[in-house]
Amino acid sequence: MERRDFLKKTGAAAAAVAGTAVSAPAVLAAEKTYRWKMVTTWAPNTPVLQTGAEMFAKQVEAATGGRIKIQVFAAGELVPALGTFDAVSDGTVECGSGASYYQAGKSPAAQWFSSVPFGLNPQGMNTWFYSAGGLKLWEEVYAPFNVVPRPQGNTGVQMGGWFRKEMKSIDDYKGLKMRIPGLGGKVVAKAGGTVVLLPGGEIFTSLERGVIDATEWVGPLLDLRAGFYKAAQYYYYPGWHEPGTTLEVIFNKKAYESLPKDLQMTLDAVAMQTNLWSLSQAEAGNGAALEELINVHKVNLMRFPDPLLEDLRKLAAEVLEEEAAKDPMAKKVNEAFKKFKKQIGVWGAVSGRPYYDVIAGKYALKSE
Ligand code: CA
C-alpha cells in the first residue's frame, strides 16, 4: 500500500469513528458559549450572601471551561433586591440568587425552603433537600413560575438578635418594636411585638436612634460588619427564628432546559459545592467574629431563657399551621417537613445532642 493511500484510508477511518462517536448537534452544543446574567437579592460584597453568588458564577465558568459565563449583578444594579425572582421567572435574566422566604407573597409554601422557626439546622435542611424529598417539593412549588431552584448556600444557625433591653419572659415582647422578617416576624407579632420592615441599609440608624428596640440580622460575621454592637447592649442567642437559613440559586426553566445535559449537571454540582462553601465560610467567619465581639467589643452575650423559648415555640407552631392553611401546596410541604423533622429529631437525640452535651462544658461561655 502506498503511504499516501494509507494516510487517506486511516484518516477516513478516524473520521468515520469520530462521526459515529460524536453526532454533529452534540459537537455544536459543546462549542456553544452561553452568556448568562445573574441578579441577586444581596448588597455588593456581602460575605457569604453575595460572595456565594459570585463564587457560584466563577466556579461554573471554570468547571465548564468557559462554556457558561455568568455576569453577576448585586441588588439594585439591574433589578431591585426583591425583583430577582420575577426577573428569572419572566426570563429577563437566566438566573438569580436569594432566599425562598422572599417569595411568601407569591406562594406561602415557598417559606419552608429557606428557614422555619424552631425548624431544621443546616445539616437537617441539606439532608431534607438531598436525601428526603425536600428539593423535589421545592421544584414543585416553583414550577408554576417557570423557575428551577437549587440550594446554593447556608448562613448557619443565626443569632437571636440585638436588643436594647433584657428579654426575661414572653411578656417583654409586648410593644417591642423589632426588625424581624418572615415567619419569625409573625411569631413576634403574635407575642405582642410590633414588626418593623426595614431594608438592610436602614437597620443600624433605626436601632441607634431608638426607632426600633431590637433587630435580628444574621450571625456574628455579618452582625459585626453592620456594627449593631454600637447601638444595642444585648446580643441574644439562639436564632430560633432562622436555625438554618438556606440560600437559593434559581434558573429560568427554559434557559436551564436549553442546556445540554452535561452543563445542567455541572450547574447542579457547582450549586452543591457552593452550598457547602458558603456554610463553611459562614461558620469559620462566625467563630472568629464572635470572639472579636466578646473580647474586643465586650458585648453582653445573652441566652434566651428556656421558658421564653418554649412560649415562642408554641406560637411558632400556630403560625406554621396558619400559613399552611393558606393553600394546599403549603399544607403538603408543612406536613412533609414536620414528618421529616420528627424522624431526624429522634436520630439527633441519640447522635448530635448527647455529643454536644458532653463537649458543652469544654466550650461553655464565661457568662453562663
Ligand atoms: Ca435573619
Write up this protein.
The chain is α/β, with parallel strands linked by helices. It has a domain at 32-154 and 244-283: D-Maltodextrin-Binding Protein, domain 2, CATH 3.40.190.170. Helix content is 50%, strand content 14%. The chain has 14 helices and eleven strands. It has helices at residues 3-21, 24-31, 49-63, 84-89, 122-131, 134-142, 182-190, 200-208, 220-226, 253-257, 261-295, 306-324, 328-350, 352-360; strands spanning 34-40, 68-73, 95-98, 147-154, 161-163, 177-179, 194-195, 214-215, 234-237, 246-252, 300-303. Strands 7-6-8-5-9-11 form a six-stranded mixed β-sheet, with helices on one face. Helix 3 (49-63) links the parallel strand 1 and strand 2 (68-73). Helix 9 crosses helix 11 and helix 13 packs across helix 14 (352-360). Residues 9-20 have low confidence and may be disordered. Calcium ion binds next to loops.
